Amino acid sequence: MTNEDLQNIITGLGTDLEFTTEASEFLNVIVPKEQLHSICSQLKSHPELKFDYAFCITGMDWVPALGVIYHLNSTELKHEIVVKVMVEDRENPTLDSVHDIWQTADFHELEIFDFFGIKFNNHPKLRRIFLTPEWEGFPLRKDYVDEANMIIK
Amino acid sequence: MTDQQAQNKIKTEEYFINMGPQHPAAHGVLRLILTIDGEIIKNVEPDLGYIHRSIEKMCERDSYQQIVHLTDRMDYLSSHINNEAVCLTVEKGLEIEVSDRVKVIRTIIDELTRIASHCLWWGVMGMDLGALTSYFYAFRDREMINDIFEETCGARLTMNYNVPGGLMFDIHPNFVKRTKDFITHFKTKIPEYDRLLTGNVIFQKRTKGVGILTKEDAISFGVSGPTARASGFSSDVRKHHPYSAYDRVNFKEILFTEGDTFARYQVRMMELWESISIIEQLIDNIPEGETKAATKAVIKLPKGEFYQRVETARGELGVYINSTGNKNPYRVKFRSPGFSNLSVLNHISKDVLIGDLVATMASFDFVIPDIDR
Amino acid sequence: MNFTQMIIPLNITKTISDWIYSIMPETAASYTIMVIIAVAYLALFAVAGLYLVLLERKVAAWFQLRIGPNRVGPWGLLQTMADALKLVSKELTSTIKIDKFLYNLAPYFVIVSALMAMAVFPFSEQFQAFDINIGVFFLIAISSIGVIGILLAGWSSNNKYALIGAMRSGLQTISYELSVGLSILTMVLLTGTLQLSEIIEAQRTGGWLILQGHVPSIIAFMIFMVAGTAETNRAPFDLVEAESELGAGFHTEYSGMKFAYFFLAEFINMFIISSIAVVLFFGGWLSPFGITENIAWFPQVFWFLIKVLGLIFLMMWFRWTFPRLRVDQLLTLEWKYLLPLNLMNIVLMAIVIWLNWTI
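Output (structure tokens, whole complex):
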């Protein structure tokens, strides 16, 4: 299915969706964070989309916004899209968890929570999976400073 | 007191034990917090980060040529394939077409890496199940591959043979001969592996029907590589998104439907034959050509997002590079196969015995630096 | 006095015993002799145990395309001696949470019960410390005491791995004790005596018991070797220490010489199981087809050791080729297969003897 066809179908799933194919090999869909869960579950269940395989979930710090990028693939229909979601609040960023749609999100959301500090609603057990529980700050954010351990040129 | 009352009186208490970070079954510093009732596992909670070096953060500070030297430390058993993934992403961004010679050499070394990795996996799989001898058999043959690597690029494990735009230098004059010798030798050794372990009754009893992963779960949990293919999930990147010279060779994607530990074992054993076949198709006709395309001294990727997937010995490795046009990437993400594969462990290890968990883990072929990055 | 008795070393012991009796009152002399025999056995089997460790390492190396120990002494012969010295000189570390008394007691339980069993073995016609008329029964009884030491070790270490290992050991020994006992009983039906020397004597004319009892004997032998391997907690039944599951199992918290006791006991137990098999199935110190029967100077102990080493090699072969069983498979094998087979085998043996079908 071509990117245009995908765009036509996905447009109907929510409101205020932005589409772009600029500077990327995939069709990018930017989703408002309130609609993330509903759109994702439709992406998976829609008979013409069937995005059942989330092959990459990336945390992202577009200063000032934080966000998550979902690379999705349909194992049956062989098409791929990228879903992006942004959250402006740096102090207490919160998104909906999609672990009930793609179970792989469970671990990837833990990783994102650990390094970007994005909290996920309804996540079964949000914890610091890599760092120690008392670690301060979120290392992969652009404004993270650790003078002792980081070598910045 | 009736039996039923007695049953109610006897209560068992769940307790937890640590499997790792220093434990012979975890090949590296993986810590699993097991909740156990007697010997029956109720919950497996991985606790990671013991070898986390934050390669993704380091990449944000380094230039593209430098990144290549970090990635071979992720999945050290697929070091060449990891480096290739980064190089392919950068090449995709720069829109460089590498020569056929580079593609073929990369593919041959990819497959040698895969054989070496599967050899090590076979050895430790036997060891985890208590058959210590397999380890030495596997290492005898793996050593020959390491020698070839050493002659080719100077390193035996964490190779830095790839650079963006091609290879660091041409292959050694002995490369073709030694690779052929290895293939002839190894073809006689795989049946030996089968005689030692595959056919063993105890081995089959320990692995058949253990740790069953369904196809739906495999897809949902993002499991990839031989682990996914044992469940019938056709996930071979080499087939679906061919890179390097994989579009010009014939090979089968090994698929099983059982999804148990024995199926995962068989997938890897049969992949050894497929890797041999790929090497045999390529080794005799390595085309002539440049080994390195001309790149600028400072590589600047154009603004944009670049994604490249390759098939390592453990599964699908994805490299996501977000560039703002500088000499450093803005964000690099490695989608490592081990991390996603690990996420399914708890799901398929409910209500099994400790021995089953060890067998399942062995068949997943975890490399901890790959999970931790 | 014939020629045989003159040159075998037992005459030296007879001289020593005569001399001790001549300088001491009778009671004191008998006690002194007992102590001397005990010390001699202890030294002998400690060294024998060490060399079994070396043998295991050489056999393992042979199976694994390696050379094995070859640096200390000629062909590495002194390697395990050096290891033992190292272990003796090591600090005995332990955690603070252990139950001190039981923790220290456990290794002695294991090693003493292993060494006690050695007392009744007839290495040759004269070389036997105690020839008691319940020899076989004594062996079964003694060899099951060792498990108490393992249970104590696991319990007192206050370590979860050790506890799981010890519990596994308990259920394993209790289960496989049945098979060991029943397969021995099958052979006792044939000999009609529990005295080890008489069991061997019965094989001098009729041929080895494994031939005399043909089919049921062979079945009994197979069951005995499987169950015996399980009794000694060796692979493929080494769930007790299963290093990929439990670290080191019941001896996780032991170090230095206390660990060495457990280690040594495992090898002595292997020797015991092989010795029982040799006595019950392969004619003990009797030579095959009586080929050295008339050669007076030929040491009978040679045949005993050759046969024992053969069976030990078999057990090492198991260890270096088989994967480990899972704990439920271990129990299934015993209770669903070996035990019913064994019970039928006893009946079969009884019928064979009743109908005089023995060879």
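The two ends of chain C are 35 Å apart (CA to CA).
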